[in-house]
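To close the section, here is one more complete example, presented without commentary so you can practise reading it yourself. The ligand is nicotinamide-adenine-dinucleotide.
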Amino acid sequence: MKDYWQNYIDGAWVDGGAGRIDVINPGTGEKLAEHALADAADVDRAVQAARRVHMSGALSDLRPVERGRMVQAMGRYLLEHKDEVAEVLTLEQGKPLWEALIEVEGAARYFEYYGNQAETVEGRSIPLGKDYFDFTTYEPFGVSAQIIPWNYPVEMTARSLSAALATGNACVIKTPELTPLSNEWFAHAAEAVGLPKGAVNILCGLGHEAGSALSGHPQVNQIVFTGSVPTGIAIATAAAQNVVPCVLELGGKSAAIVHSDADLDAFENDIRWGIYFNAGQVCSAMSRVIAHDSIHDQLVERMVSVAKSLTVLPGTEQPEFGPTMGAMVSEGQRDRAADMVSAAEGQGARVVTGGRKLNIPGAFLEPTVISGVTPDMTIAQDEVFGPVLSVLKFRDDAEAIEIANGTPYGLVSGVFTRDIDRATSAARQLRAGQVFVNEWYAGGVETPFGGYGKSGYGREKGREALWNYVQTKNVAIRLKG
Ligand code: NAD
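Output:
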């Protein structure tokens, strides 16, 4: 592990105008390395570099299959280096090594998918009678700014970068302050596959400084953001001032409705993945379970047994897939989650298991289940972003839907039942961009993902995401004779 990591601007590794930031290993609480910290001038240099690439046509004039092949090759590069990337990701983020490997493989999959999609972005011809020939084309916006969160730094960058490059945009990536290191491999990948200098710029900087300079830069043409609601509002405001589009993915308070006829054995697996994967720091985490009255008590028992089955320890000590959980990203995020659990107890909920910090160095929180939660409680409304599952009760289908829809968010939702009519009816009524039936996280890179309500707007993943990065041009030709 090197001591000092730099920013990557216009094909060169550079220091930051704002100095350096310490990167902490949340698995030990110790300093891991320093990273260059960009200021507004660095951001400007990166945007200008990306703009030069765009104006030169070096990316946008290529035949799409050529861009697609480069994008696919970036994915292969990540796979070839997955052990190195995963190790650094675990050290900076806290997740188990086996989860970090899944994340790097998931990142590579985005490059495979969007590399394949590059040559599918086709226009159409619109009939205007015999005197005209009219057609549409899709052109890249130009400079795509991507502001990345710390929970999945590798996968989130891959998600936007792959689609943006496949459609011919040059990119400036602002990595998260807490987990900037693992993004370095995207720069190596861009070089390895022969992308022009300046096509991919990667810099770490503080949100209110570099992040704000990037989202407000007048030569940024499109913005992608994943993170919290208040930051999303600041970014959307900056985008509006420059009249550029943005995609916002702002988290959620997603609920699984579990009916009395659900397969409860299978649901234990959904508990394990839905709320304890990445220590619950997942925007689409299953942070609420709405259980039918008749199965509520046995379901809570099952949740407790899943939570207790997990061994919590530093991610580096978890190379193999298994019933384990790592540290949260920082002591600050861990304390915030622990405080929310205590506040829920204060409002009358019952902490059935977990809720305490581990008495070892590092940002560890026990896997937690809270029952007796009612829809009005803060814990039922606000995103914890930690390994904390809230359980609510319902008596009939209408009440279940009302509770599920009763937050300002709407990212994903789930319904667990053997009755297909009940499931499809719920899917129609749930206000969420994605509904899982009988398996939390069903789907993949191919399935569009994004929010209703305060969970944001625009869609990532799937073919839908391609349209974030292109604008339509219509060409109407008057024919003679
Ligand atoms: P955040 O939204 O403040 O940070 C996310 C990214 O935005 C970081 O790269 C940050 O540097 C940048 N940023 C911050 N302020 C900015 C600004 N004014 N302009 C431009 N960029 C800016 O999130 P956080 O403070 O790291 O975490 C707080 C909470 O956000 C979490 O507890 C969680 O609830 C939520 N969160 C959600 C997701 C998600 O995937 N939806 C990811 C991370 C955090």
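Once you have examined the tokens, check your reading against these statements. The first strand starts at residue 4 and ends at 5. The radius of gyration is 23 Å.
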